[in-house]
Design a protein that fits this description.
CATH class of chain A: Alpha Beta
Shape of chain A: globular
Strand content of chain A: 5-15%
Largest sheet of chain A: 9 strands, mixed
CATH superfamily of chain A: Ribokinase
Radius of gyration of chain A: 17 Å
Number of helices of chain A: 11
Structural class of chain A: alpha/beta
Oligomer: homotrimer
Low-confidence stretches of chain A: none
CATH architecture of chain A: 3-Layer(aba) Sandwich
Number of strands of chain A: 9
Chain lengths: 272, 272, 272
């Protein structure tokens, strides 16, 4: 699967605008370039609309809760021009400021895709729950025991927000209103580098930007790519007797050389 | 030594809030993750108190002299909640703005640990001397000839500020009011990457956050870890025929796989 | 050639102040350190003049169109003190804001060196043309068919701006009013990492800072160094079966161990 999705990514070389946090901005730019896209991290409110109008997608990342005015301007512009908007509600539930900010964004912008960890998504879906720092709460953790419940929540939230919902974790979920993909790839070491989540969101931006007419499958492909490349990178890191930074390098390396065949060979995906 | 310190780090997985500069923020987040902690780089003044209240430690880094208001809010909150605050007075003495900023911070916040290079610490201790850029002045350089004098200065400053004082350089000093550790580890190549100092401070945050009741030993352990991993990384880099970026990767790699045994095997520490 | 240029770089260890974007700031600091310089990324308007006065060069990078006031203050100070100023007009032509910003900067500051891709430079030279994102337009691409025309434009712009003009692309041009170097080094993979351009500009800052009396040759050396190290890094990456991040690491690695002999062995340079 995903042959067409990957082919479009290479053909269209989507320009992806990211208004994102300064912690992982370099990783996000590099992973977009690695997968075949072209990033622009323009975030000044006086130019984001003009830049957004040339892009194939827009990625908004709440990581440092800044540039909110620019996000709204760019998001509205993209909505008007039918350009996909992907949001990463980093730390949703960790502070009142973040909750308010997400509400403000969602009141003004329609999101094509929402990607977060289980605690962040739960908070959006239920208005309850909290996160500490940027990781999901331990008690929220996705396991084989609750995965179908989680997928159900994703579908419901998809209906409510009219967005594709992506939940990252030990098991990943990619869902629209009727179909959910459950993807069992990736490796725990991914949570030991900063930016795994942000990079996933950036990839979603590139994949959806190049596949505007098939964003559910494009989102599943992006999530699968991240998971499979994470597994391959972890194996290569082990052989190299490296640690977390070697892992990060190999992860983006694999994204830069991946093909749909490579992903399909390792993918573990279930449709419900 | 340090067995308990390392065990606490793994057990407690301390959440470390960093209000830091945008130059090395990614390295700082990654080294905190590598050593077993969990970083949050939240720095918006409207949320830092709320986030700080959930953390095990707070790291303040003056690198780009920004977010000072947020630093004061977060620092005061941590002081009230008895959460350790670690400060890195980057470039102290390099501009009037930095001198003023440090004074402003130190008037409002009690620091558990102050870490800087010899020029920065000297400036704090004496109100005199200057730095150019972010490196220590050549004439201040720590050598075997002045190391006991430097350690004495650290003790005196510790008394004055009621803080543990860490001085980084060719020889490192970790001191409270009565005891100073002199640590002869590390490698000159550490000064050929950006962020060596900032990463040391981030490590101090994680180690102290997990070892609130024994911060002097925790600080010595963090400094020793950085030094020993620096030596190991330099050796591995040489074998790989790499350069400064390979070195940086291996440095954080080693932090991600280190054990107290590994550090103890290579540590060169003197107590005075 | 370039023996004296490289010797000066090592001898003088130039302090380079960068007021730059947050996307590639870490890469820029690291490449300056790698080549033998010392970076300071101070960008607060209340200290940039004081810091600039201690520096050997100033690098201004318009990547995220921020800190313009600080850029003007630092630039004017450097002009007064005869310290070289290097400008990277990132995304020139991509938005009205960027065009205005460059005009504002160039009205207030004399640049020793202007470095951009062909679309950015064309826009400055002609006031026409546009860029999408941060890459040069396909139709502007430098080839063997238009390279002498491009070099001519560089010379003309050099006369107009009284600056050395550096145009980066598949073929690079380094020109003053009378002499243009055409450099055929580098590798296409350099455009698949973020920061290739910004790092080139940072290198120019270090090379010119250490060679104030011979900035044309220093600029050619910096561009050749980037190109040759890019080729070497690509070859090493291929052997390691890596991807774009391995490439980036090896690129800066080579900058950290390069010598004039290494560069001269691989350089492909033409003078017109």
């Amino acid at each position: 699967m995903f042959e067409k999705i990957f082919a479009n990514l290479i053909d269209k070389k989507p320009l992806v605008q990211c208004i994102t946090n300064f912690v992982t901005v370099n990783d996000c730019a590099n992973i977009i370039l690695a997968c075949g896209g072209s990033p622009t991290m323009a975030h000044h409110k006086d130019e984001v609309e003009e830049i957004a109008a040339c892009c194939q997608s827009l990625v908004l990342n709440m990581g440092t809760v800044s540039d909110i005015e620019a996000m709204i301007l760019a998001g509205k512009k993209c909505n008007k021009l039918n350009i996909p908007v992907v949001i990463d509600p980093v730390g949703m539930g960790a502070s009142e400021l973040r909750n308010k900010t997400f509400n403000e964004l969602s009141k003004n912008i329609h999101f094509s895709v929402i990607r977060g960890n289980i605690s962040e998504i739960k908070r959006i879906a239920t208005g309850k729950g909290s996160t500490t720092g940027v990781d999901a709460n331990e008690m929220d953790k996705i396991t084989e025991n609750n995965i179908y419940e989680v997928a159900h929540m994703a579908k419901e939230l998809s209906k409510k927000m009219d967005s594709i919902v992506v939940i990252s974790g030990p098991i990943d979920v990619v869902s629209d209103k009727t179909t959910a993909y459950i993807i069992r790839n990736g490796h725990p070491i991914m949570s030991r580098i900063t930016g795994s989540g942000c990079m996933s969101t950036a990839l979603l931006g590139a994949f959806c930007g190049a596949n505007k007419d098939n964003m559910l499958e494009a989102s599943a492909a992006a999530v699968a790519a991240m998971g499979v490349c994470g597994e391959l990178a972890q194996k290569k890191m082990k052989i190299a007797e490296g640690g977390t930074m070697t892992f990060r390098m190999f992860l983006i390396d694999y994204i830069s050389i991946m093909t749909s065949e490579m992903i399909n060979k390792e993918i573990n995906i279930e449709t419900i």
